[in-house]
Amino acid sequence: MFQTLSQKEKNFLIIFAANYIGIVMIYISRDVHFCAAHKLYNEKWSKEKNEEVFGACANENWHGHNFDMTVTVKGPVDPETGFVINFKDLKRIVNEEILDKVDHKNLNLDVDFMRGKLTSCENLIVEFWKILEPRIKKNSNARLHCIKLKETNNNYAEYYGE
Ligand SMILES: [Zn+2]
Question: 2-159 adopts what CATH topology?
């Protein structure tokens, strides 16, 4: 039955259960910013179809975005520190694993884990998740909860690992 619930309902039940047994589940987030170039282009399609589907993002000679990303982790509060995860550690992990690899880079050409993939927000956050999730688990009692990536002021994608 749990499987059929929405993410919102699942989160509600998890928090409810955690509170019931005396564990408080807290969500903490870190906002980061990076600039990167890319091109959205499906090689199997004609130039016209690429332009029709991807619009300005299909521009042959690349273009850039100012990306805003929010990484949210959840976990119980450590009684010794009062933290879910030390923000200093979260900062280091996100910087080392993601920002150092994508900031001021060409996402199609310079980023190993995006090679051969369409560099959409959706595909980026799925790859970011694969990298961040085990690293956060290894370094704390916290778990990665959500990655939100904003490509423009109006458009963003979110991933909850499912
Ligand atoms: Zn674009």
Answer: Tetrahydropterin Synthase; Chain A (3.30.479)
